[in-house]
């Protein structure tokens, strides 16, 4: 946290938000000491506020005593309108039903993809995406499908950054990645092979509304079955087009 987080005169609201904001996907559970350190709230104040948040069920405790986000916040989160998710979900279910593979929907949020929906089954290959989770754009199929339709200035700015490399297969060379994005735009879909996670490959198609990618629909399967990806492209693109029609109509 920045030094300003410990400045006197912070409002109670800012302290509560800092406490709630201390949790993330990498740290879904924290001790009180960890929570105070990450939020920049003094331990005694954190202890008092955490007690009130627990009483309101904004926070709860795991069996080992660590704190985690409580059910009340989940309930509030469900009230946030997400028209895209509501319209797209039947298409995700249909695509999963016809393929039996992991299907997810993502949007761009800053320099990352934000997963807004997902349908999966017990027999599908495990994947790292989760609803509400974020991943970098360039190693993911949905990320490439979104990035390919961004304005040139955005793509150039993205490629100029130091790009993380989750696996040895991740494409990080700007020139090569730019050519791949051009191919995605020309073909209307993206393919990846073990770029985000070893053992999995993916196909993704943009959800285009008036030429703009408002989201991307992806399907993930085991890399041992990578040869099956081409046959999944058409149903994937058809589902993405269906979502686009429903959303843009």
Automatic annotation (TrEMBL):
**Organism source for this protein?**
Nonomuraea gerenzanensis
Give UniProt keywords alphabetically: DNA-binding, Transcription, Transcription regulation
What is the protein name for this chain?
A: Transcriptional regulator, IclR family
InterPro entries this protein is in? Answer: GAF-like_dom_sf, HTH_MetabolicPath_Reg, Tscrpt_reg_IclR_C, Tscrpt_reg_IclR_N, WH-like_DNA-bd_sf, WH_DNA-bd_sf
Domain annotation HTH iclR-type: ranges? 10-71
Q: What are the residue boundaries of the IclR-ED domain, all occurrences included? A: 72-249
Q: Give start-end of the signal peptide.
A: none
Tagged with keyword Transcription regulation: yes
- Name a single GO biological process: negative regulation of DNA-templated transcription
Q: Which domain of life is it from?
A: Bacteria
Query: From the UniProt record, which GO molecular function terms apply?
Result: DNA binding; DNA-binding transcription factor activity
Membrane spanning residue stretches: none
Q: Does the keyword Mitochondrion apply?
A: no
